[in-house]
Amino acid sequence: MIKGAQPAETLGLIAGFGIWSSAFIAFYGLHGALCAAGGAPFARGGMIAVLALHLIAHGLLVWWFARRVRGASGGAVFIRRVSLVLAVAAAGATLWTGVPAVLLKVCA
After folding, report:
1. CB burial class (10 A; 0-12, 13-18, 19+) of residue 6?
2. What is the rounded distance in angstroms from the CA atom of residue 13 to the CA atom of residue 32?
3. What would the mean pLDDT of 45-53 be, rounded to a whole number?
4. Which of 26, 27, 43 is nearest to 35 (CA)?
5. How far apart are CA 82 and CA 79, in angstroms?
6. The whole model's pTM is what?
7. DSSP structure string for 43-72
């Protein structure tokens, strides 16, 4: 264990990609369910809502990690910085996954 880091801080390493995973499942699950049920008129609005909610969650996570990096000392600095970088990368991955779901034709 890294001196100065709490065991729960290692969960920060997967938090951002946990949100990305949730967004990925929600995008394609919602898309499939709405298209199969004939809900094509609602699909685009649903995709936009899913993307917005997950990007807000990413923003809050990045903000929280950024605050924790400033207050870190010792070995906790490394884990907190890596968690922050991974959270930013996961936000980018969510945007990369979500923009086509929002912009492209729905229920073709």
Report:
1. exposed
2. 30
3. 92
4. 43
5. 5
6. 0.85
7. HHHHHHHHHHHHHHHHHHHHHHHHHHHHT-
Unique residue bearing structure tokens 């609005």: 45
With beta carbons less than 8 A apart as the criterion, state whether 3 and 75 touch. Answer: yes
Give domain limits for the chain.
Answer: 11-103
**Distance separating alpha carbons of residues 22 and 76, to the nearest angstrom:** 27
Neighbours of 68 (CB within 10 A): 18
Residue 73 confidence (pLDDT) above 80 = no
Residue written as token pair 């729905």: 106
Structure tokens at 75: 């070995």
